[in-house]
Amino acid sequence: MNLSFRGLVNRPMHNITGAAFLVATFSIASRLLGVVRDHILAGRFGAGESLDIYFAAFRVPDFIFNLLVLGALSAGFIPVFSEMIKKAENGPEDKEKLIRLASNVFNALMILLLILSVVGIIFAEPLTRFVAPGLSPEAQIQVAALTRIMFLSPLFLGMSGVLGGILQSYKRFFIYSLSPIFYNLGIIAGALFLEPVLGLTGLAWGVVLGAFLHFAVQVPAVIQLGFNYRLVLDFADSGLRQIARMMGPRTLTLAISQVNLLAMTILASTLEPGSLTIFNFANNLQSFPLGVFGISFAVAAFPFLSENAYRIEELKNRFSSTIRQILFFIIPTSVLLITLRAQLIRVIYGSGNFDWNDTILTMNTLGFFALSLFAQATIPLLVRVFYARRDSWTPFLLSMASVALNIFLAYVLRDYFGVAGLALAFSIASIFNFMCLWLWLYYKVGSLDLDKIFISVTKFAAAAIGAGAMVQLLKIAIWPFIDMTTYIGVIWQLVVAGFGGLGTYILLCYVLRSEELMAAIAAFRRKLPLKKAKLGDQSEARGL
């Protein structure tokens, strides 16, 4: 048992399906903890000013983390580090170069994050007035106080990001996938144990605790790979300079994305109290399948895409099989989210101070978000194909156009739909971004196996429509036998209709001979960490 666990932790994953399955499994666990976290917050505070303060305080520290850490790692560190690993002969000199590069990136990133965090702590109050202009002056003071505490989290997440980049480059996905679970555990601990004593400040310290745990859990795995920290800071290092050049456009892309979130926060703060909370709760719910089926496959595929970026046929095959697997999962998920959104929201958030009006607003917002799940789930894969081919400018320019569209539409639609209008604007802009990325990639790479993708998507769509119809029938059929005014009654309707819809989807995909269904079943049977298997192209799938 101990040997099995060690093998699970230390063995590299050499196929996309296996790596994605592992990442997705832990993503589900992490997202479930996120649901527990939001359930606790909703029950305790409801959709009101208190949680608006908490979510507003998140925005600027999260902006810094996404801008620098994700920009450096997703666009630069992993491709450069993976290439160095591939070229290395695993001799002492080669390993020392890898250690020095990792330490150099670690130190440079920490200095930059430390400077920005100090500046953020000093200027927290004017930043708060900019980010949440619609909140009361008293609430803005609280936001600033929480923001100062949360500025510690980018430091820990930055260190964790470098360690995670090393583990991903070596295809060690187990511990990397485990770290978000610890992040959510820290936040839950803050909500359960610190908030009753410290108030909203306890929630902020819970975020810092979660960030520390996210970092700490990865340290042993990186040390086991032979990476010991070096006190080195060399801005002239060719590897560091290459990463910096590649992360520039990616950082700008993320800056545009974060500006988009800032704009949504600003607009939501000007609506009725609780709108920012509702927007975040609905976004968190739709992010669950995105994390499981979109990001998991994107994370797992990136090292493989980087290795085969200029082998056109191999790149096309991997891209095609991966995007088909993502859509196999995300299309029925979209249908289930739309048809069962009221039940989901009542079960997850509908307790304590979260009332029926909050439920309706969140339900409408989630429905608009779900319209673009297919685009949101596949954009991470599309973007990583560009990054693998050392092109980070194109995603930046297209992202800038889509965010401009989103902000314009959100400004207009909020007057008609309130907070739900922000989600509708987001969906329209996401679909626009997806279409632009796809067309440009098609232009640069050529045929993307479009015929096969179209056939598969047609099968998924037909099966998902059948599943949606079954959900609606079961909701009506079970109604006379349960009390929908009770929590248990809502759960029963959700479970029966949900599993009925899911079973219908699987059955119809089987009848339609969906290749992706067979690949998913094969991956599940293998339980990949326990057994190594080489897969053909038809089962190399991924999907967060």
Contiguous uncertain segments of 5+ residues? 1-5, 528-544
> Helix-strand pattern, N to C?
HHHHHHHHHHHHHHHHHHHHH
Main beta sheet strand tally, sense and closure = none
Measure the end-to-end span: 30 Å
Shape: globular
Please report which band the strand proportion falls in: under 5%, 5-15%, 15-25%, 25-35%, 35-45% or over 45%.
under 5%
Q: Give the % helix.
A: over 70%
Structure explained in plain terms:
By secondary structure, the protein is mostly helical. Helix 3 runs parallel beside helix 6, helix 3 (49-87) runs parallel beside helix 12 (275-307) and helix 12 (275-307) packs parallel to helix 18 (419-445). The chain contains 21 helices and no strands.
List the helices and strands and how they pair.
Blueprint: H1 2-10, H2 16-45, H3 49-87, H4 92-122, H5 124-131, H6 137-150, H7 153-169, H8 173-198, H9 200-216, H10 219-224, H11 238-269, H12 275-307, H13 312-339, H14 341-349, H15 356-370, H16 373-388, H17 393-417, H18 419-445, H19 450-478, H20 487-511, H21 515-526
Helix pairs in contact: 2-8, 2-12, 3-4, 3-6, 3-7, 3-11, 3-12, 4-6, 4-7, 5-6, 6-9, 7-9, 8-9, 11-17, 12-13, 12-15, 12-16, 12-18, 13-16, 13-19, 13-21, 14-15, 14-20, 15-18, 16-18, 17-18, 19-20
